[in-house]
Amino acid sequence: MDRQHLIKEFPQIQNLIDLKEFLWINPERKSFDEAAEAMSLGMKDIIEASERLERFAPFIRSAFPETEDSRGIIESELLELTKMKSAVEKFYGTEVAGRMFLKCDHALPISGSIKARGGIYEVLKHAEELAIGAGKLASTDCYSKLDSDELREFFAQYHVAVGSTGNLGLSIGIMSAKIGFKVSVHMSADAKQWKKDLLRAKGVEVIEYQEDYSKAVEEGRKLSEADPKSYFVDDENSVNLFLGYSVAALRLQKQLEHQNIRVDREHPLFVYLPCGVGGGPGGVAFGLKQIFGDAVHFFFAEPTHSPCMLLGCMTKTHDRYAVQDFGIDNKTIADGLAVGRASGFVGKTLEHSVSGCYTIEDEKMLALLALMTDHEAISLEPSALAGFGILNFFGSEEFEAYLAQNKIEAQNISHLMWATGGSMVPNEVQAADYRKGKALLSE
Q1: How, if at all, do strands 99-103 and 78-80 pair?
Q2: Which of 156, 276, 159, 242 is nearest to 207 (CA)?
Q3: pLDDT tens-digit profile of 144-163?
Q4: Region 214-225: what's the mean pLDDT?
Q5: Which residues pair with 100 in a beta bridge?
Q6: What is the per-residue pLDDT across 284-306, written as a single tens digit (0 to 9) for each?
Q7: Beta bridge partners of 230
């Protein structure tokens, strides 16, 4: 189907072309039991990934002193937002019935973003397979032995590569270099300079492109395939990344229980996930569905200039088209979300599970960043505020119809905003974003 026929069949695409903030509700969402039948992955895969991360905890604890308090487990806190809730209600001129929470992945140790989950997991799994295959490690060993010159010398003969807009590159680069791999990060034009500088300071080769994320991935994959000892981390299609992200659901379940936050059909959890290519939010959403089933509802949030997942899910074409095919420029302040073509793997896996997708303007993300700093003293990067864009649609015909269809009482909802990155942003960059946001708030 060509683009004009697609626009005719899905006239709502015009909202994306016009760069309008837009909410799409998935008309083909099914019950969890029905959707799960078509999935090739399940809870056993998540548990296996979780157990692998526990095996690696002694290594992480040894190699990264900042994880000492958590004993090598990479996790973030769950925080209830009270001041920010009032601030965003005023900002959007709406009421948020129910409670509002923040999943603080911006503060994850080692690489400071949600990518510290999947990216680090995939590198560790690859290292484990190589070391066990060479007889240098057994699954029953204490994995702290990996933090040694002998193992680093062994890993130095291997190469890891990835294409990234920034945050995935940080997680892959930092962990790969620490283990001892040679590592190359292929960075798109959208990547922030400070992320490139940080990687180079860690001994990572950074290869820059003038094109966007898709080009960085394409070239990185091509160069990696030419080297038999090179391993390419494919953000678009990686099952390992996806499962690494999904482990967050097991940890979140314990946090919710610890804070006495009920999650069931009558007390649903609504999760708002900033979305680029889809691997991080998709993995988290998949894990949450496996645990909470129909009691969890998830929405993907994207910049108006990069609505690739919304485009793919709404038209069911997934990765066939890029936003640029419709004249959308894929230029956004939210560098981690600057992706023109969505992951077909994620889109197809979750096509009957996702509740909806929506877009938010760059200016709103910056203004919300300033509000978060002022009211909660939490510093985020712009993309981490995308989830709050859902408030633009509270009270809308589409959102109210969704609540009615699912027999949900708004006051019983726990709203969870996923903060995807921010703690590693240099002070001067954070200050510049804050000033821009404050200026927008004063207009």
Answers
A1: antiparallel
A2: 159
A3: 999 999 999 999 999 999 99
A4: 88
A5: 415
A6: 999 999 999 999 999 999 999 99
A7: 159
